[in-house]
Every structure is written in C-alpha cells, then in structure tokens.
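To: structure subgroup
Subject: Chain for Friday's discussion

All,

I'm putting the inputs and outputs inline so they're searchable in the archive.
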Amino acid sequence: MRRFQIVIMMIVASLTGLATSAAAQDTAVPQLDVQRYELGSGDRIRVIVYGEEDLSGEFELDGSGVVGIPLIGPVTIGGRDVAKAERLISEKLADGYLVNPRVSIEVLNYRPFYILGEVKQPGSYPYVNGMTVLNAIALASGFTYRANEKKIVITRKVDGAEKKIDVGDTTLVMPGDIIRVPERFF
C-alpha cells in the first residue's frame, strides 16, 4: 500500500509541475527591449566606465535629454537607444581623455507614463515593465461612467516623431506614453 501511495504522489507531482510550467509559458509577460529603448527626459541611468570609478555614476536625463558626465560635460543622449548612447560617450571619452574606454549604460528608472481623460485619477504614474493598458487604467482607479472604453489612444514617440496608436486592453504601455481615454457620447 505504501508503494502505491508513493507512485500516486510522484504522478501528481509530475502533473503539477507540467501544469505549472505550461501556465508559466502562457502567462509570460513580454519585456521591454532595453537595448532598443530610446532614452528620454526623466530616465535615470547608471553609466559605468570600466576601470574608471570616478567617471562612473548615476545620472538623470534633463528636460532636453542631456546628461552631465564627469570629464566630458553635457552629452545629449535623449532620443538615442542605449547602445548608441554607450558609443557616443565612449567616443567623447576617447577624444583626448582615455585610451579605448569601455562604457556600459543601465536604465535604473524609466520615465513615467501619463493617463488622461475619463479615468478616476488621471495623472503621471511610474512605468512598470510588462504593464498593459488595462493595468494602467486600474492604477488610475478605473474608468469614469462617461468613458469610451473602445476608443482609447496612446501617443508614443517612435523614431523621434509622435504617433497615435489605437489600442486594446492588452496593448503594452511604454515609458513616456500618453494614454487618452475619451468621453463617450450617448
């Protein structure tokens, strides 16, 4: 009898493991591609210059996308992806300051997104990786009774130009997005 119980427990454990791994695959949340992410005003980054601790540190991009790096001063990296920003800082450091500098950039805090219109608490909210439009609306305490839930629009900067995107509940929110929930007309 004891042997029978052990076999049953093993079968249940293996089935539970399969169900758990299948559920994990089904609910996998798409992640923000950090290397393709365009840096912008309000992003907080960590710049690491290998072998040069005095030049490394945490910085925030100002309103015009500029960050002040020790030794080389202000560098405009807003609108560039992380890889291009790393190359730009490396080039500036190599121009008379360091021999073959190696630079790495890590995004510590992404700029916030905004939700406006017919939600109970419109405003600015911190970006969370994997957030959908429905999650963002929940953060803003839900729709008002006048909300047109079928006509939600996101304004997003793509390649330096603002684009309006019609969205659904499962559309991913990106840093800096402006979500507009319009009023419905009866």
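Points worth raising on Friday:
Residues 1-8, 10-30 have pLDDT under 50 and may be disordered.
Residues 148 and 182 are 6 Å apart (CA to CA).

D.
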